[in-house]
Amino acid sequence: MSTAHSTLSPSPLNRTFCVAPMMDWTDRHFRYFARLLSQRALLYTEMVTTGALLHGDPQRFLQHHPLEHPLALQLGGSDPAELALCARMGAAAGYREVNLNAGCPSDRVQQNMIGACLMAHPQRVADCIKAMRDAVDIEITLKHRIGINGRDQYSELVDFVGQAQEAGCRTFIVHARIAILEGLSPKENRDIPPLRYDIAQQLKQDFPDLEIILNGGIETLADCQTHLATFDGVMLGRAAYNNPYLLAFVDQHLCGSTAPIISRHQALSALRPYAEAHLKAGGSLHHITRHILGLAQGFSGARRFRQLLSVDIHKTPQPLALFDQALKILEGR
Ligand SMILES: Cc1cc2nc3c(=O)[nH]c(=O)nc-3n(C[C@H](O)[C@H](O)[C@H](O)COP(=O)(O)O)c2cc1C
Question: Which catalytic residues are annotated (predicted)?
Answer without folding.
Answer: 104
